[in-house]
């Protein structure tokens, strides 16, 4: 058998076993021919085929000198050119627009000076298509992704998944949006085309030569994660949008390494939330603000029909309690210094500080017949909390120990799972992320936890009353009603989620989406055991 066939069968036949295909110059003598087909399944006939490359580049972000970045660029090999939409002038990768049911092949080429692999955040794909770091490819090599889009319509995204270097790779510019559409959503006639506005929120720090500055020095500087001084939307600083008197849909992604946003309109207009990580909610919800954590997506409608021409308003991040996000501060009542001081790099914009993100100018009159439907989608009733035994929850702790961040009491191991990290294919389980354990004072932070592969539902949150004040400063913005793949677990909090382990057996990840925590090993595998049907 050729190597390609071997890999294909190894992946399909040995459900539940660890399929290790470690690659690298040391192991493969004939790298080009062997590696160019990695990931591919010979019988797969794609509806859509894309070529995607990660490579160094330069972008005009600030006036003057270009900023050196890393960027994804793509081209359509098969399918309509509209599948890829470039964000003009941005370091961000093209928006990939797919349809539910499509079979997709993506030939990914790594032109970076270091290994990488791409993860399709939020998509439900077979284990070898999921971008696990055990599939990292070296410089100059190619990885072929082939999967069917089984997710419902929603806003997903793609980014690197190098173990220990995801933070810097994303920070250098590697990220892009992936939008899935389906017939059910299309039938609602939500604002689309120029009435659909994508906002990828990130923060960056620049030096005097306009170059990106990341965390350096002691590992202690990464303990709270990275926070940049400047807020960027789609790779640009302080953008202004000229809009008309009509409704708009905003697809939001928090693509920041560690920053949390508390999003609100500056004129007091409430936020109309229509979707979460895994697509539309059942009904639109009205909220004073929307909390958006690293990795999380939000979908909202802003109706400018009654805003007179000439109105200016901002999308802002409101003030909230920063203590749960900063090592050495939580629960110590020593904000702004003290024994521990700030553990990490200095920033002019800490988590919880208010700032403006973008400005909207209502510039022209236009009319629209669009009315937001009262029902957006219907969820399967078997997902309601009454249907499950919450006392049988699988408890996974979130803590700091031995000078590192731990998940389930452990740090990351590339190919291993603990006994309580094995689940059966097709089982429906309650998982409880528990951040309420005793911990050294000031060593308890909020963690945005992300589960690969499966969208889940949030059943409940319980918070230690002694720590409820910080929690309250973000609570009304938690977008918990819909399908999720990323959830914030605050200090003193226990969050129960309901997950159904359908379709694909194998080894998948769950981890903290504070990318510095993830790189430090706050990541674990879980294994789905069973045979694919
Ligand atoms: Cu967006 Cu494993 O993450
Ligand atoms: Cu974390």
Descriptive overview:
Helix content is 7%, strand content 37%. It has helices at residues 3-13, 31-35, 166-171, 183-186, 468-475, 515-519; strands at 48-59, 67-78, 84-85, 95-99, 103-110, 118-121, 142-148, 154-160, 176-181, 196-204, 230-233, 236-237, 240-244, 247-254, 261-265, 271-276, 279-287, 290-292, 297-303, 312-317, 355-364, 394-401, 404-407, 422-424, 428-434, 447-451, 457-463, 486-489, 493-500, 506-512, 523-529. It has a 7-stranded mixed β-sheet with strand order 12-11-10-14-19-16-17, with no helix packed on it. The chain has a 5-stranded mixed β-sheet with strand order 3-4-9-8-6. It binds CU-O-CU linkage (C2O) and copper (II) ion. Residues 119, 121, 159, 161, 295, 450, 452, 509, 511, 513 line the site of CU-O-CU linkage (C2O).
User: Which percent band covers the strand fraction?
Assistant: 35-45%
Structural class: mainly beta
Low-confidence stretches: 1-35, 330-341
- Percent helix, as a range, is under 10%
Distance between the termini: 25 Å
Bound chemical compounds: CU-O-CU linkage, copper (II) ion
């Amino acid at each position: 058998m050729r190597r390609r066939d071997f890999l294909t069968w190894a992946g399909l036949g040995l459900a539940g076993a660890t399929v290790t295909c470690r690659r690298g110059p040391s192991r493969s003598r004939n790298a080009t021919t062997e590696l160019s087909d990695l990931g591919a399944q010979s019988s797969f006939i794609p509806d859509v085929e894309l070529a995607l490359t990660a490579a160094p580049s330069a972008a005009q972000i600030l006036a003057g000198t270009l900023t050196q970045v890393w960027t994804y660029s793509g081209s359509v090999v098969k399918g309509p050119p509209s599948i890829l939409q470039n964000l003009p002038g941005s370091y961000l990768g093209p928006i990939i627009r797919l349809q539910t049911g499509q079979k997709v092949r993506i030939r990914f080429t790594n032109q970076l000076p270091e290994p990488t692999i791409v993860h399709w955040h939020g998509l439900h794909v077979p284990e070898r298509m999921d971008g696990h770091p055990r599939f990292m490819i070296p410089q100059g090599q190619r990885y072929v992704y082939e999967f069917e889009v089984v997710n419902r319509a929603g806003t997903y995204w793609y980014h690197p998944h190098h173990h220990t270097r995801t933070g810097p790779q994303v920070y250098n510019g590697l990220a892009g949006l992936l939008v899935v559409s389906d017939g059910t959503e299309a039938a609602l006639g939500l604002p689309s085309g120029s009435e659909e506005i994508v906002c990828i929120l990130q923060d960056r720090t620049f030096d005097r030569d306009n170059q990106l500055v990341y965390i350096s020095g002691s590992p202690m500087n990464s303990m709270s994660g990275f926070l940049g001084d400047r807020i960027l939307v789609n790779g640009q600083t302080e953008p202004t949008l000229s809009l008309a008197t009509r409704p708009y849909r905003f697809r939001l992604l928090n693509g920041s390494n560690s920053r949390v946003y508390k999003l609100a309109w500056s004129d007091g207009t409430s936020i109309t939330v229509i979707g979460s990580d895994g697509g539309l909610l059942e009904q639109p919800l009205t909220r004073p603000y929307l909390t958006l954590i690293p990795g999380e997506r939000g979908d909202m409608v802003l109706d400018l029909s009654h805003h007179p021409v000439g109105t200016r308003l901002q999308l802002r991040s409101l003030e909230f309690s920063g203590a749960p996000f900063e090592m050495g501060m939580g629960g110590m009542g020593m904000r702004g210094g003290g024994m521990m001081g700030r553990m990490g790099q200095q920033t002019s914009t800490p988590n919880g500080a208010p700032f403006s993100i973008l400005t909207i100018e209502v510039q022209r009159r236009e009319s629209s017949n669009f009315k937001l439907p009262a029902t957006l989608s219907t969820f399967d009733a078997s997902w309601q909390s009454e249907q499950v035994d919450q006392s049988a929850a699988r408890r996974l702790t979130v803590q700091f120990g031995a000078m590192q961040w731990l998940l389930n009491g452990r740090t990351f191991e590339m190919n291993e799972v603990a006994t309580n990290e094995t689940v059966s294919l097709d089982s429906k389980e309650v998982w409880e992320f528990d951040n309420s354990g005793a911990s050294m004072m000031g060593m308890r932070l909020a963690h945005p936890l992300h589960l690969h592969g499966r969208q889940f539902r949030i059943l409940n949150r319980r918070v230690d009353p002694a720590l409820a004040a910080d929690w309250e400063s973000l609570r009304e913005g938690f977008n918990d009603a819909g399908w999720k793949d990323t959830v914030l677990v605050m200090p003193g909090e226990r969050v129960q989620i309901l997950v159904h382990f359908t379709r694909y057996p194998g080894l998948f990840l769950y981890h903290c989406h504070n990318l510095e925590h993830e790189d430090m090993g706050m990541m674990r595998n879980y294994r789905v055991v069973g045979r694919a049907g």
